[in-house]
Amino acid sequence: TVENLVKRYGHVYWRFSDTHGEMMSLKTYAKYICNPEGMLDDSPLGIYDSEFGDEDSPTHEMIHEYQVPKCFSPDLFDLADTKVN
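and the corresponding C-alpha cells:
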C-alpha cells in the first residue's frame, strides 16, 4: 500500500521527472497522488528510480519484493538481435 511505502521509504528522495533532475520525498509525492490534484492531473508526475536494485540504494530490499507484471514479460530486449553490423 502507499501507506506502507511511505512508512518505509517516506524519507527517500526520488526523481519525479524523466527529463529534469527535480527530486521529491516519497512522503510528499504520496500527498500529491492521494489528493484530487494528483488523481485528476491530466499530466501526472511519475517517480523514477534509476538505482532500483542497486546494493547501495536505500530501496535495495524492494528488489526482493517486486515482480515484473505479466503484461511486461518476456523482456523484449532479450529477443532483439544484439549484433552490431
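(Above: one complete record from the training split.) Helices lie at 2-9, 26-33, 36-40.
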